[in-house]
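Morning!

This is the sequence you dropped in the shared folder:
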Amino acid sequence: MGDGAMVRPTIGMITAGPLIELAGEQWQGVSDGAAAGGCDLVCFAGTELAHPDRHKRQANAVYDLIAPGRIDGLVIWTTRISQQIGEAAMREFAGRYAPIPIVSVEAHLADWPTVLMDNRAGMDQAVSHLIEVHGHRRIGFVRGPLAHVGAQARYQGYVDALVRHGLPVEPALVTAPAPSWDPAAAADAVARLLDESAEPPDAFAAANDEFALGVVTAVQEAGLRTPEDVAVVGYDNHTCIRSNDLGYQASALPASGSVHRRVNIDAGTPALTTVRAPFYEMGRRAAELACALVRGEPAPALEIVPTELVVRRSCGCIPSGNGISAPAHGELAVPEHDTAEAVAANLRQGLGPKSAVLPDGWAEHLIRLFLDAGRPEGFLGVFAEYLRDSARAGCAAQSWWAPLFYLRRFALARGADGGAIEDLWLRVQLMVSDVVERERTFEYLLHERQDQTVREAGQRLIVSRDVAELTDALVAELPRMGIPGCHVMTFESTREWARPLMSYENGELRPERTALTFRSTQLTPDRIDRPAPGNFVAAALFGLEEQLGFALFEVGAMPGWVYEAIQQQLSSALRGIRMLERERQALTEAEQARRSLELAHAELEDRVRERTAALVDEIAERERLEAQLRHAQKMEAIGRLTGGIAHDFNNILTVINGNSEAFLRRCSPEDPRRPEIEDIRHAGERAANLTHQLLAFTRQQVLNPELVDLNATITKVRAMLATLIGEDVELTLDLPAHVSPVWADAGQVEQILFNLAANARDAMPGGGVLGIGTEDVVLDAGHPGRIVGVRPGDYVVLSVSDTGTGMDESVQTQIFEPYFTTKPVGKGTGLGLATVFGIVQQSGGQIDLTSSPGAGTTVSVYLPRAQTPAAPLPRATPPTSPHQGSETILLVEDDSQVRAAARHSLERSGYAVIEARNGLHALKLVDTHDDIDLIVTDVVMPKMGGPELADTVRRIQPDLPVLYVSGCTTADELDDTAVLLAKPYAETELLDVVRRLLDQAV
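The structure's back. Tokens below.
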């Protein structure tokens, strides 16, 4: 592999990592195919195109390294990278590599050769197995997404099998195409099918294994068993990698007659009978076609690779491990003309070349002993010896399953003692299962050791402080991980050019290469010679926001995921090294500056000292702002929690207050129940006031801002303030006449005054002075207030001071937090100052507090100054409309009790009410009712909220009035013309607003 005149062609592979499980099979197939064709392979492992995660998407920079002249042929595993983009975008992506010949896998790509699996025939074989072997006649099918070509071909295979066997295709047994490969959706679809069917089908075939597991879940939830009541088959052989039980694979080619046996562990799920997707074979064939194209040889436009049926327990073929025999296997029976010599050949073929370690004539000897099942000890002893010797030669124990299964069938077909044969077969199963289990345990421990090796290597790489340490770490760790070569490249000023940071191959460093700059698309500055075809993995190295370079690994004995793990660790190490280099550079520059300053004039030194002082102030200011931000975030979190609680309370109180009000209207004054009902209403009103306070400090209450004269407001409530603070506290006012009006909610301003006065009174238990003053001020960006993000400008400050006990700094930091109080238990709720804080913040103002122990406290509230000096206008009181009406109202509310209370109130006033539980339900009712005069809707609901409902309806009926009701909302959620009624509301309020909107719409 190299640039210029290359010793051998280089095939590139584009796929999404990590190279594990199915992706590993695909990569291994391409690797073996390229090697067989005498070509080097470079696998460019990125991720899906247009991946939603921006950071992960940076891995796709590796695709930019592919260029003609360096890569001679290209295999694109199209489905691995095209899940997020359409067919046209995928064609455009592939077009950038012209004129490199391309082979596409799993999907057609322009006019390039394509390698597909035979999805249709594979599903045909699986369904035929259910029909021919198990005698099932009513077979359901769970369809995959319409956009997935393979899923549609699998459905056609299902239809083919039924038609060929003379069975009807029952639409009631076929689910609708799924929107995605979500097993939960498959489970839901099957559950509905089972509910609607008089009796369950005999079996289900699913478009993939994930859907098959969804089928098993639905069947079990319906009280049925798999496979005893309903058999299940899947597709892909992907999920079954982690399933349990004994199983064998029957080849898709009828003539082969080969059977492969495998053991899995995870006793929770019945092992799925499925169709193995031939990813390895597809990858190998794609590489062979790419090599042919590179050599100028013709290649077929389409290659279809056969699939393979994998029979396990979910169809009922394999015993569950408790001794229950498998049913007959129909077509899998041994042909009558087969001889012991054919079975012996099958035994030798199943074990492959590694069976050479066994004695001559071992297969014939084993057959004779097996046929003599009445003396099982002879067979078991010899077989145990053969099993041990073959394992030592590297032959996996599961390789015995296929020929042994064939031997069992042969013995049964030849009329041997069936009971003795089955008893011996069960003991053989247990023996092989035990060996396979030990092999899997060994593999698990081996994988754990590999994981530990990679973790240790990663830890050493990540803590490298410079390139030298990183190079030393790689040289030490690469041999431990079995990676024979690694080339780490970093980009120059642009990604078009690169330079080797480290080049390691054949067990030694190549330092002479680190001075060479080369085009990134060359991958390496010069050729890497290998006597045999080389296999490499290219991966991008990137930081949070920048591309650092790329790594080229020569593939060794470790699994494919190791290369992505090392790539991530190298990326982290390079990011850390670059940060340290920047810090070192900064320190060097600082040292040079210091030396220059020492030689400079005294005036320059003074400027340096001034600048240093400024920096100290700036850091202090930054620390103050950070602390302020953390406090604001904490308040926001508490606010969200409390606001949600208040919202639920308002729904409850709407029902309580509405029903109590209705009861009172129906009760006469002499009714003995009336006092209790009035107590309920009074308690509901008190609870509503409490929720208003909760919404106030969470900034989720509805404000009605207007021009407010602070001096007039303070004067109006002066008498109430004097009563509130008591006779032992003197009230003094400082209200200059020139103070400007503010833009705020007058009622909330009074709430601020009462809460601050009450707090000041409690701070002066022995009496004192409460001072209230106003003044026009201008806030700049550096004002040290408690609220983050307040805009500079013109404000009016409302100052409330007391001569009380004051507070220390620890109390001041928490004083505006909800539920914080210094009063004894039962003496305070901790909501007073938190409510003030929320009102001020929602009004766009600022708040600050100064205090010290024994010196009293001053709270300064800054409210935005009104843009016009005009006096505030009195709030207009809408004329009272009659409550009665006969119009039709669509009531949309997700809380059934609130909806019932509102409906009763409206119907008692003569209105016709149509109910909907959410926005989507309401839209359906609007389509079927043309007599709706008004919509009354909650703001926040599942599936579709009130604003979205109103927007949708007004596209059809623009003049239809809408009344919003909500227990927790802000003006930001609604437009300027929206009419909002806050929960909990009185019945008269609801009827007044409804009548007013209906009258306005006339």
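Headline: The two ends are 83 Å apart (CA to CA).

More detail when I'm at my desk.
O.
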